[in-house]
């Protein structure tokens, strides 16, 4: 039976939809951004064009098009689209979706895409009901999350899915989205007498931080606020009705300049989860900035983390690790400075400890860099773990642990005994302390490590002169 009121109800629903919802792309041609996965020849593009969509997980920041892309995929592949939120969908509803998908396949061969937002909240019981039918191809699962699925999602889901990361849109891409909304006569503001300055669009492109939804919301706020300042649409329609104009044609002229645009977009709330993507990404950015000797970037990422509520002690710990891992003996002052920073952060707390973190990060960023100490211990650990273990030479062992008796001067089979360094000229005996010839520490020519390297080379040359060739360890 035909529902005569369906068009009216649909029009009513569309009438209250925000601009960002109305402007959602409906086809691949309308989709803006994500060319690294949707460009010609890219994997997801090939999967869509070949109608070879398997279960996928779309992850990335808000406003990058995860939900929209799932809808476009369903439309492009002519599949049913069912959208649920993983945090709220129950096992009963999942079984209903499976039954509906089964009937759709049996009746007309049409497959179903089940879109699960916040898929990182999908529970084991929900998964157990769904995954068997997903593997059989009855339902195609598309998940979306702002978290890193490798950390946040159930491993069974991840192992059955192809992961695609969506990146924040560029400023040019945001500007393109905004201009489309301004010009679109059906879903956007193309029927209005609307003039938007280029620098206003630039404000939204910059301040939206790659979030298309946020930019469109700002445009909508600007348009509605300017309309309210002019004559209302109802007044305009009453005044012009006798001329045969429609309400849409007689809306007042709207001008949006930079000041209006600035006012329409507020500061974006930090998207930061202390255990999620932003937590790992921000600290990674700080470490790499310091390693790359960029103090400005280092303090920005620290500010970003502190403003979002990150534990300053976590940042201090990472600075302490970095002082040894990336600076080491190129600047021996780096490690005690980082240790002092950690101590003060523990004692002082926020907001004052931000000063300590900033001072330490700037010093570490400008210090000469070396990972020679890190490489030395890693190489030695690899030798030990791979079974290349060496016995302690007899003359280096604790004499008190000898079965011969306390205080006995132990010698190895060559007759060598322990030589007390302080009794030798220059406090250097040249004795072999490893049993084989091996070099783990390879100093760089940067900072203080250059001096240490010169000293090490001198000692190695001296050892070569002191020790006879037949008494050296095997290479």
* Beta-strand residue fraction: 5-15%
Uncertain stretches: 245-249, 404-408
Structure summary, number of beta strands:
7
Radius of gyration, whole Å:
33 Å
Q: Roughly what is the average pLDDT, rounded to an integer? A: 83
Strands of the biggest beta sheet: in what spatial order? Answer: 2-3-4-1-5
Explain what this protein looks like in three dimensions:
- α10 (171-183) crosses α12 (212-229), α15 (277-291) packs antiparallel against α16 (295-307) and α18 (334-348) packs antiparallel against α19 (353-366).
- 28% of the residues are buried.
- The model is unreliable at 245-249 and 404-408 (pLDDT under 50).
- The chain has helices at 6-16, 19-22, 35-38, 43-49, 66-76, 91-108, 124-135, 149-152, 155-159, 171-183, 198-207, 212-229, 233-240, 258-264, 277-291, 295-307, 312-327, 334-348, 353-366, 372-385, 448-466; strands spanning 56-59, 80-85, 112-117, 139-145, 162-165, 194-196, 254-256.
- The strands form two sheets. The chain has a five-stranded parallel sheet, with helices on both faces. It has a two-stranded parallel ribbon with strand order 6-7.
- α7 links the parallel β3 (112-117) and β4 (139-145).
- The chain has 21 helices and seven strands.
- It folds into four domains: 34-165, P-loop containing nucleotide triphosphate hydrolases (Rossmann fold), CATH 3.40.50; 171-264, Helicase, Ruva Protein, domain 3, CATH 1.10.8; 277-366, Zinc Finger, Delta Prime, domain 3 (Up-down Bundle); 390-471, no CATH class.
- The chain has 475 residues and is an alpha/beta fold.
């Amino acid at each position: 039976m035909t529902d005569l009121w369906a068009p009216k109800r649909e029009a009513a629903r569309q009438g209250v939809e925000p601009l960002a919802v109305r402007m959602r792309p409906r086809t691949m041609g309308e989709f803006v951004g994500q060319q690294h996965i949707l460009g010609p020849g890219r994997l997801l593009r090939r999967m869509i064009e070949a109608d070879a969509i398997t279960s996928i997980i779309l992850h990335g920041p808000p406003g990058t098009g995860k939900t929209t892309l799932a809808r476009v995929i369903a439309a492009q592949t002519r599949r049913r689209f069912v959208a649920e939120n993983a945090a709220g969908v129950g096992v009963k509803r999942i079984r209903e979706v499976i039954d509906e998908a089964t009937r759709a396949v049996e009746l007309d061969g049409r497959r179903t895409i089940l879109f699960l937002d916040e898929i990182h909240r999908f529970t084991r019981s929900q998964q157990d009901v769904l995954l068997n039918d997903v593997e059989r191809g009855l339902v195609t699962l598309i998940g979306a999350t702002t978290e890193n699925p490798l950390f946040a999602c159930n491993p069974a889901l991840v192992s059955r899915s192809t992961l695609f990361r969506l990146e924040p849109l560029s400023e040019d891409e945001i500007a393109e989205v905004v201009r489309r909304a301004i010009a679109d006569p059906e879903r956007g503001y193309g029927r209005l007498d609307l003039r938007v300055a280029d620098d206003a669009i630039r404000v939204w492109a910059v301040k939206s931080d790659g979030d298309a939804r946020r930019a469109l919301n700002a445009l909508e706020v600007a348009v509605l606020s300017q309309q309210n300042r002019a004559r209302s649409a109802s007044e305009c329609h009453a005044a012009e009705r006798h001329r045969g104009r429609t309400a849409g044609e007689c809306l007042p002229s709207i001008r949006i300049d930079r000041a209006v645009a600035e006012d329409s977009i507020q500061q974006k709330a930090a998207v930061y989860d202390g255990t999620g993507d932003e937590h790992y990404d921000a600290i990674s950015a700080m470490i790499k900035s310091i390693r790359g000797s960029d103090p400005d970037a280092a303090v920005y990422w620290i500010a970003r983390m502190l403003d979002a509520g990150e534990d300053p002690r976590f940042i201090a710990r990472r600075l302490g690790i970095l002082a040894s891992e990336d600076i080491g003996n190129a600047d021996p002052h780096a490690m005690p400075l980082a240790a002092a920073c950690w101590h003060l952060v523990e004692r002082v707390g926020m907001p004052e400890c931000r000063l300590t973190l900033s001072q330490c990060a700037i010093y570490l960023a400008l210090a000469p860099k070396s990972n020679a100490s890190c490489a030395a211990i890693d190489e030695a650990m690899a030798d030990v773990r791979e079974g290349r273990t060496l016995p302690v030479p007899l003359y280096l062992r604790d004499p008190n642990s000898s079965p011969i008796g306390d205080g006995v001067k132990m010698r190895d089979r060559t007759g060598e005994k322990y030589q007390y360094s302080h009794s030798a000229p220059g406090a250097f005996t040249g004795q072999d302390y490893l049993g084989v010839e091996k070099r783990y520490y390879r100093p760089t020519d940067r900072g203080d490590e250059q001096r240490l390297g010169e000293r090490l080379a001198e000692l190695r040359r001296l050892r070569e002169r002191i020790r006879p060739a037949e008494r050296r360890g095997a290479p």
